[in-house]
Amino acid sequence: xxxxxxxxxxxxxxxxxxxxxxxxxxxxxxxxxxxxxxxxxxxxxxxxxxxxxxxxxxxxxxxxxxxxxxxxxxxxxxxxxxxxxxxxxxxxxxxxxxxxxxxxxxxxxxxxxxxxxxxxxxxxxxxxxxxxxxxxxxxxxxxxxxxxxxxxxxxxxxxxxxxxxxxxxxxxxxxxxxxxxxxxxxxxxxxxxxxxxxxxxxxxxxxxxxxxxxxxxxxxxxxxxxxxxxxxxxxxxxxxxxxx
Length: 244
Fold this sequence. Notes:
By secondary structure, this protein is an alpha/beta fold. It is built from nine helices and ten strands.
């Protein structure tokens, strides 16, 4: 069953075709990596899927519904969650307060936001999300005082608190130590038991360790798609991206 599908999805900025006629299909529960050189169109593509950027043409179908014209927040309510390439946390709030905002949104997904929310339930969900990314003991620290890599993990915790069906991770291991990267890979495997993962990542060791399938972009178009072994053996990919 197709979980997410784009059809001839395109986005131009002036005369530049950042994404051109991309057909992408994800199945439930897979970990899909998108790779390609800088400027290949990877972030623009996931921005189209999340609704942050409107398409110039083409369509997006999610769980059988056309969501091409939905606003970003409407897509979040449907379960599409995007963590940014550049961290987007509330720097003056604590880690717990940042995650609590996501928890409250998740708990009011199917009811008016003015309805009472159980504070104990919010606290439990906040702790669970922070624990999953290894920040459970730092809930009272101010987000802006975290190292960059830990801010990235906080943003992942905020995404997890929204109970995503599709979790889009844009360069999530940037700024993480070797051990933190290993821990993050273990976390992604666990998350994939409950959600489909769309991962943009330059660290090829991470891509090869995690991805069920890999989509390669170049100059705004899809260059290749396949299993990690198929991509590594693809001569066009080696020339355009892997440098062989």
